Amino acid sequence: MKISLKLIGLFLGPILFGIGLTFQNSEYLNPTAWQVLAVAAWMVIWWVTEAAPMAVTALLPIILFPALGVFTLKAATAPYASTIIFLFMGGFLLALGLEEHGLHKRIALGLIKLTGTSANGIILGFMLATAFLSMWISNTATTIMMLPIALSVIQLVKHDSLNEKGFTNFALALMLGIAYAANIGGLATIIGTPPNVVFVGYAEKLLHIEIGFANWMMVGVPVSAILLTITYILLTQVLHKNKLGKMSNAEELITKELEDLGQWKKEEKIVAVIFGLTAFMWIFKAPLNNLIGFVMLNDTVTAMIGGITMFIVPINIKEKKQLLHWKATERLPWGILLLFGGGMTLAKAMEHAGLVDIIAEVIAQNQLSTLLIFLILIAVMLFMTELMSNVALATIFIPIVIAIAEGANINPLLLSIPVAMAASCAFMMPISTPPNAIVFSSGHIKISQMVRVGIWLNILSVLVLLGAAFTLVEWAFG
Known about the structure:
It is a single chain. This protein is 73% helix and 1% strand. It is an all-alpha fold. Among the domains are: 1-72, no CATH class; 84-331, no CATH class. The model has no long low-confidence stretch (mean pLDDT 82).
């Protein structure tokens, strides 16, 4: 009988927890440190093997830390309601508003039409549209929306094309371009991808630093733009040239899709205004607070203003119809919010037990060059995320990176921001991210083809993030 990895993990987690507790009276670490490590071992094993849903694993600290006396119940549950959790919730609610009324599809089609209808122009349009939407809404939802439109374009090109190799390269580049752009676009904003939010939560808990939305974009937008440009060039000019030129049928399809959406509806306009005002407040919160005369706006408050507004603005007073109804929140990924809470509770416990200081001291004793530390940690995060959930990996790895930076006397933000971004740069395997899996299901991509492009992108991403650490991150956070 074949024993599954999940089943092994289900029992291995509690076993390692029990083993860890047997060391709590040893001379090497204090008892609290061993208790925290025991809980961490249980959680990491369950996260890696997916023995239980990740959000369920994230609830273990609520039971275990009070039982062990590490925290009171109140202290153990506090991180589950941190400001970062509500920042992401507000972002999710804004995204629901976009999706509920189809505004995301109109934005996508409009961007695709702007880039022209040559084969490479279509690929560029899909990549730009996907990346832009992924800045604000789930990369999974973005990819699911873009895929059927892209498949329709591919069918038209297949019908018209006499160049079989060119068509194959076009289809492959389009599919990979959508998946990669969905991953890359999320780097641009705090709410774009879960690892960003995980990092911001840790920065607040461990470093007592609030990362502003605008500050993040000063790094995230350029990094995202550079990686998107590299990806487009690699796909269309280096690895998969198509030489198909202009295609009028594709233009007709995009135009028809836009026509089917009809004129801008009232609710679309209202959602666009709310979304635009929220983004404006995120980016310009400092001057707006100065204008008000006191600090009222921060990223979390702004996100919640935008999210709540979606529920209270009426689009039909007689029918008592609002932009969003509570039923729409069934699509809100509540599990991700719990996962953040569990990760931050674990990080808080590591700090409380002195484990962060111990890691820092160990690293300080090893005289590695700063450049080598950056290179190793960025590469480790990026290649490990090919094999496991980027959220779980970021939750586990980022506190360690912060401790390493402090031990090596490096500004923790300069090291941990590019490492956090690396968690979203998984390009090699279909299992690495939902966008990769979604486009792989189209049948236009072989695993070997994804690996061939992905390995180059992974290497180039490491170099881009390494360069960003000493330039953009230094400029924005140094």
